[in-house]
Every structure is written in structure tokens, then in C-alpha cells.
Design goal:
Length: about 425
């Protein structure tokens, strides 16, 4: 196997050299081929090879032979899903460019396809989370009478499915589609509330430390250092294990403890960002002017510092939401997160994980746990796409590039005019 890989890499290396040489010969040694690094040429060849393999694998997944098709089932589904999501994102961006206010149309015109995909995904998740009780065909804890357990997704009776349950049922006869929809409400909603609480705690104390400094800054920073020194998932798991004994005695749901613990742990990261941003802002002249006017700490934090630190905090909110979301799913998978009978994607992956063993010969059965895992991964990727776009917009790179290009063009025109003037004077002499 290793020899085959080495031979393939060597063959692509020879093809990369031939590609660059042929490009130089065909274009008359054009700069784009003459100045092309060998690594770039190799990347082109590697990309073409990967694309060719994906096309071949997709065709294998469409084979009439079930044994061959089963081997490439998940890759085929992934490719088809990627294409469908791309088309949906493109249509969504076109609609945004023609429908809405002037500001929204301008935003959609400058939006890349990845950001439109992320925004569309977040919007769909939000609709499912808000209207879960209306959209879901069954309740999240409803055991449907007269329905068998472990119905295979797909709805094909020949493969163990049921058309009435397109995503199948779980081990006790609950509709997986309904639990996925309610999982959006529970998992995403709790993650959002936890992230908001983390930002309230971390942002408030971070700005206070930056504004007041002194002993308050030292005490808060050292406490944050201690908490950040412990791996967040291990720390949260330890605290939730303890809280599982406290919750029945205090009569407080375990989910409340989870929200508080995760919010405190993740607020340390927000504290670091808020403190660093606040320290850069607090030395500005307008802050000194506000202090001379006699403004209090509340005014400085909420009226002066917070508005000028909004952009990095919004970007951090998206990233922090992803981490909180994954932490909640991990805790639920370990059994100390969102508790049954509430639907939760992490719990669904744990309960249905045994079906993965059937992936080699019965891929439809193996999709049951992958539905919840895919929902987690899809939302994480979508939020990261939107955050990357927000960071780009807030950085001002596009505006800076435009400014420098305009400046360069202006200087070039000015220089050409000066040279033309000197030439004219020489001719007249």
C-alpha cells in the first residue's frame, strides 16, 4: 500500500513538471506559467487527481451492484448534499440581492457563497428551534403505539424502513425526525443561552478590569488563569458529575447546573478578549475626556468601551457558540448533559451509535446516529463560515485594498501627467 502511495505521488510530481513545461510552451512562456512555483503546479495536478477520484467514487456509489454501492454510499450522499447546499446557498443569495432593504441588498451583494450558506443554515436551524412544536409530527418523548422500534431511515420497506417515518425510529419507538427537530430547540437554544451568559460575565468583568485596573485586575486575572489552566471539557465533566448528586437534593434541574458551569468556564476566554480590547481603548483621548467630565464606570464601559469593541466580540460570540455547542453535545453523549426525556443530539448519537457497525453492508441503518452527528457538524461549519465573513468585514481589508488601489491609480496618473509635461517642454525647446 505504501509503495502504491509513493508511486502515485511520484507520478503526480512528474505530471506537475510536465504541466508547467507544457503551459510555458503553449502560451509562449507567459508569466503565469514562467513564474509559477513548482509547488503550485503540483497543487493543480493534485487537485485534478482528487476531483477525478471523487467523480469515480461517486459513480461507484451509483453502481447497480449493492456491494459496490454500499462501500461508497456515504461519499455519494456527501457529494450530493454538497451540491444541493451550494445551489440552495446561491439561490438564497440571489433572493437576498433582490428582496429586502437597501442595506440588506448591499450586504448580500458583497456576501461570499460560503457566508450565504452559513446564514441560510443558521436561519433554518432557528426556524426549527422556534417552531419545533408546530413542525415536528410527534412529541419529543412520545412513544408511538403500534410502531416497531429501530425502524431504518429511508422509508423503504424492503430495507427495514417505513414510509410514515422517513428517518426511522429509535430503540424504544420514538420518531427520529421529531427528536431531531426538538434537538434543535433544546441543544441550540441551551447553547445560545449559555453563550449569552458567558459573554455577560466575561465581558463585564473584562471591561471592569481594563477600566479600573489595580488589585481588581490582578485578582480577576489570576482567577481566570487558574480556570483556564484546566481543560474545559474535563473541568465541566467533573463539575457535572458533582452536580448530578446535588440536583435531586436541591430540586434544581441538572441542565441549570450545566448552563452555569459551562458559562463560567467559557467566560474566561471572553474575559481575556474583553480585557485586552478594553486596555487598548481605555488609553484613548476620548476616554480621558470622559473621565475629566466626571463620568462613572458604567458610562465608560457601556457608552465608550463596549461600542468600540463590538466587532471582535461579535466574532468571538460565533466561535464561542460553536465551542459551547460542542461541549453540551459532548456532555450529553457522556450522560451528564441534557437529561432524558428531552431530545438532544449528543444523547441521540450515544443511543444510536451501535448502528454504525452495520455501515459496511447496511448503510441506511448506519445513518441513524449520523443524522444527529451531521446536524452538529453542519451547524458548527455554518457558524464558522459566518464568523469568518464577519471578521473580514470588520477588518476593513477590502476598504484598505480599495483605498490603496485608488491611491496607486491616482499616483500613476499623476506621474504620467508629469512625464507628459516634461516631454512637451523638451519638444517645445
Amino acid at each position: 500500500m505504501i509503495l502504491w502511495i509513493v508511486a502515485a505521488l511520484a507520478g503526480m510530481a512528474a505530471l506537475a513538471w510536465g504541466f508547467r513545461f507544457a503551459g510555458q510552451a503553449a502560451t509562449g512562456n507567459a508569466p503565469r506559467f514562467r513564474d509559477m512555483p513548482y509547488g503550485v503546479a503540483y497543487g493543480y495536478v493534485l487537485g485534478v487527481a482528487v476531483l477525478a477520484w471523487l467523480i469515480w467514487a461517486y459513480l461507484q456509489g451509483r453502481s447497480s451492484d449493492p456491494a459496490v454501492a454500499n462501500k461508497f454510499f456515504f461519499l455519494r450522499v456527501a457529494i450530493e448534499g454538497f451540491i444541493l447546499f451550494g445551489i440552495a446557498a446561491w439561490i438564497f443569495r440571489l433572493l437576498g440581492q433582490s428582496v429586502g432593504t437597501g442595506w440588506s441588498k448591499k450586504m448580500f451583494r458583497s456576501m461570499p457563497l460560503t457566508a450565504s450558506f452559513g446564514l441560510l443554515t443558521i436561519l433554518v436551524y432557528a426556524i426549527f428551534a422556534i417552531f419545533a412544536g408546530v413542525i415536528a409530527p410527534y412529541g419529543q418523548e412520545q412513544i408511538i403505539p403500534g410502531v416497531a422500534a429501530n425502524i431504518v431511515p429511508g422509508g423503504d420497506p424492503a430495507l427495514g424502513g417505513n414510509p410514515d417515518f422517513p428517518l426511522g425510529t429509535d430503540q424504544i419507538g420514538r420518531d427520529i425526525l421529531s427528536r431531531l427537530i426538538y434537538g434543535a430547540q433544546n441543544t441550540v437554544g441551551i447553547a445560545f443561552a449559555t453563550t449569552v451568559l458567558a459573554f455577560i460575565l466575561g465581558g463585564t468583568f473584562g471591561f471592569l478590569a481594563a477600566t479600573l485596573g489595580g488589585w481588581l485586575d490582578q485578582v480577576l486575572s489570576r482567577m481566570v488563569d487558574v480556570i483556564m489552566a484546566i481543560p474545559s471539557l474535563i473541568f465541566a465533566l467533573h463539575q457535572m458529575t458533582i452536580a448530578s448528586d446535588w440536583a435531586p437534593q436541591l430540586g434544581i434541574p441538572l441542565t441549570v447546573f450545566m448552563v452555569v458551569f459551562i458559562a463560567v468556564i467559557d467566560s474566561t476566554r471572553v474575559y481575556r478578549l474583553a480585557r485586552a480590547g478594553g486596555q487598548n481603548i481605555v488609553v484613548m483621548d476620548y476616554i480621558e475626556a470622559a473621565k475629566l467630565r466626571g463620568e462613572g464606570v458604567g458610562y465608560l464601559v457601556f457608552k465608550e468601551i463596549l461600542p468600540n469593541a463590538t466587532a471582535p466580540l461579535l466574532a468571538e460570540f460565533g466561535l464561542r457558540f460553536c465551542f459551547v455547542f460542542l461541549t453540551i453535545a459532548a456532555l450529553s453523549f457522556l450522560g451528564v448533559g441534557i437529561q432524558p426525556p428531552l431530545a438532544d443530539w449528543g444523547t441521540m448519537v450515544r443511543d444510536l451509535g451501535g448502528f454504525v457497525n452495520f455501515a459496511a453492508f447496511a448503510p441506511m441503518a448506519a445513518t441513524a446516529p449520523l443524522l444527529a452527528a451531521g446536524a452538529i457538524a453542519l451547524l458548527t461549519v455554518a457558524v464558522n463560515f459566518v464568523v469568518d465573513w464577519m471578521l473580514y468585514r470588520s477588518s476593513g481589508l477590502k476598504e484598505c485594498a480599495t483605498h490603496h488601489r485608488t491611491k496607486f491609480e491616482g499616483s500613476s496618473l499623476k506621474g504620467a501627467a508629469m512625464r507628459l509635461g516634461r516631454l512637451s517642454s523638451m519638444v517645445s525647446i
